[in-house]
Amino acid sequence: MPLKGAKVEKFRQRLLVKRRELMSGVRGSNVKSLESTRDEIQDIADQASSAYTKEFLLSIGDTERRMLKQVDEALYKIRQDTYGLCETCGEMISERRLEALPFARLCIACQEEEERAKVEQ
Ligand SMILES: [Zn+2]
Question: Is the model more confident about 53 or about 16?
């Protein structure tokens, strides 16, 4: 069962804060226009259709960009009612793990598996 109600709302708020942090971490650019859209969260793919957003995504580092994508994906899952489910095995990711990493895609077991696979490549 995915997370519901107040619990998922708590993580949603944390994801939105994280998203704002990432967005405002960029110096000198016109972040305000992006921030004004924060309540109607869009997928990063939608946003990339505007030239400004493309520029924005280029101006931030790889780490931020990856994290932003993960945050957006997590917000998307909340809308789809699948938040908190491991993408590989479909099991519930532990709340403790989500507390530490609200945008985690995998449960600990699958994450470890994935990292092991990466090393072997
Ligand atoms: Zn899993």
Answer: 16
User: What's the angle, vertex CA 60, arms to CA 56 and CA 65, rounded to 5?
Assistant: 95
Supply φ then ψ for residue 109, to 5 degrees. -60, -45
Task: Tell me the per-residue pLDDT of 44-74, one tens digit each, with 9 for 90 and over.
Answer: 555 555 666 777 777 778 888 889 999 999 9
Which domains does the chain possess?
A: 5-120 (1.20.120.910)
Structure pTM? 0.69
Alpha carbon of 75 to ligand 1 centroid (Å): 19
Q: 105 Cβ partners below 8 Å, 6+ apart?
A: 70, 73, 86, 87
Query: Which residues have C-beta under 5 Å from ligand 1, the single-atom ion?
Result: 86, 88-89, 107, 110
Distance 93 CA to ligand 1 centre (A): 7
- Rounded to the nearest angstrom, the distance between the alpha carbon of 86 and the centre of ligand 1 is 5
1 pLDDT band, cuts 50/70/90, is low
Cα of 101 vs centre of ligand 1, distance in Å, is 15
